[in-house]
Amino acid sequence: MENLALIDSFSEFKDDKLIDRVTLMAILEEVFRNALKKKFGSDDNFDIIINPDKGDLEIWRNRVVVADGEVEDPNEEISLSAAQKIEPDFEIGEDVSEEVKLIDLGRRSILALRQNLIAKIHEHDNTNIYKHFKDLEGEIYTAEVHHIRHRAVILLDDDGNEIILPKEKQIPSDFFRKGDNVRGIIESVDLKGNKPTIIMSRANPIFLEKLFEQEIPEVFDGLITVKKVVRIPGEKAKVAVDSYDDRIDPVGACVGMKGSRIHGIVRELGNENIDVINYTSNLNLYISRALSPAKVTSIKINEETKRAEVILRPEEVSKAIGRGGHNIRLAGQLTGYEIDVLREGAEEDVELSEFSDEIEAWVIQEFHKIGLDTAKSVLEHDINDLVKRTDLEEETIRDVINILKEEFEE
C-alpha cells in the first residue's frame, strides 16, 4: 500500500508527542472513518487495519453480492458481474471484501485527512496538557519569561507550554526580563476552544502559603499549620500559624534566627512586609495579635454584627491602622471581624460615621484612610496638615470641622 505523507506524519507525532500506541491508532482510525463517511455516506461496512510501527494502513470495504441491476446501495452492495471481476467464483449473497486505496479517496480528501490527523493529535495533546495543569492548580510552578506584553508576561516551561502571568496577578514591584525564571502558583486552567489557557499568579495569598510550605521544613512536614494568609501584594501580609506540638514555637520556627528563614520569602515577594502571628481560638487574643505591632488596651466584641471595638492608647492608634490603613484592613480579613479603633480616654468622643447625615460618606472615608475615625481625632489636627494628608479640598475640611465643633459646643 502507498506509504503516503499522511502515515509519515503519523509516525512523527508518535515520536515527538509520546502518544501511546493505542491512542494513536484510535485517532488515526477516527480520522479515516470520518473521511469514509464523507466519501461513501457510511463507514459501517469498512475494516481499517493499522500498523503504526511500519507506517502501514489498509482499508477494506465489505459488500454483499446481489443480482445485476438490483444494486440499491452501491456502498453496501455489489453486482454479481462486478464481484466476479474481483474473483470469478463469487455468488449472490456472498460477502465481498475489496481493498480501498488511499489514492481512490482523491487528492483533496487526502489533504483533508492529513489536516484532520494533525488537528486531532493536537487536540489530544491539548487535553493532556489541560488535565496535567488542572491537577497543578494551587501549586507553585516555575517557567521562563518568553515575551513581555503591556498587560501580561508570557512564560514557557521546559516542555514549551505557554503560561500567562497577567499584570494584575503580578506583585507591583515585579520587573522581568526575557529569560528570567519566574515562580508563582497555577491559579486557573481553562479550555478555550481546544487550547488550554494557563494563568499564573504571584499576588494570590495561596502563593505565600505555598512558599511557607516550600521554605519552612516544619510547615512542609505538617508540624506547623498555616491557618490563614491575607495579603496586599508587595505591601504587607499577615500569616496565622499554629502547631499541635507544644514544644514547637510556630512563629519562631517560621521566622528563624534574625529572620533567616522568612528572608527568602520576603525577597521573592518584592520585600513584602510579613507579620507571622500565633493562631488562637481565643478571639480577643487573636484580634489583639492580628493588630500587631500595636498594643491593645481592651477589646469589646459583638459576635452578631461581627464587629470588634478596640481601645488603644493614642500613640498606638497609628500602629494599629498602619500605612494606608493596611494593618487594620488585613487584621480584619485575618480574623473575620470589622475592627473599629478607639483612643483610650476618648469615651466622650463620637464616631465620624454618626455624622453621615451631614457629612458625605466618601469624605468620612478619606479621614478613615489616614486613621481618623472619631470627631476628636479630626479636631486634634491642623487644617493644613489634613489638606496634605487627604485628597480633600481645604473648604471641605473647614465645613467638616465646623460640623464637628458644633457637636461638642452643644
From TrEMBL:
Subcellular location: Cytoplasm
One matching Pfam family: NusA_N
Record's GO cellular component terms: cytosol
InterPro entries for the chain: KH_dom, KH_dom-like_a/b, KH_NusA_2nd, KH_sf_prok-type, NA-bd_OB-fold, NusA_N_sf, TF_NusA, TF_NusA_bacterial
Annotated keywords: Cytoplasm, RNA-binding, Transcription, Transcription antitermination, Transcription regulation, Transcription termination
SMART domains, per the entry: KH (SM00322)
PROSITE patterns documented for this protein: KH_TYPE_1
Residue ranges occupied by any K Homology domain in the UniProt entry: 233-306, 307-384
GO-annotated molecular function: DNA-binding transcription factor activity; RNA binding
GO BP term, example: DNA-templated transcription termination
Chief localization: cytoplasm
Family, similarity comment: Belongs to the NusA family.
Record function comment: Participates in both transcription termination and antitermination.
Assembly description: Monomer. Binds directly to the core enzyme of the DNA-dependent RNA polymerase and to nascent RNA.
Protein name, per record: Transcription termination/antitermination protein NusA
Organism of this sequence: Aequorivita viscosa
The encoding gene: nusA
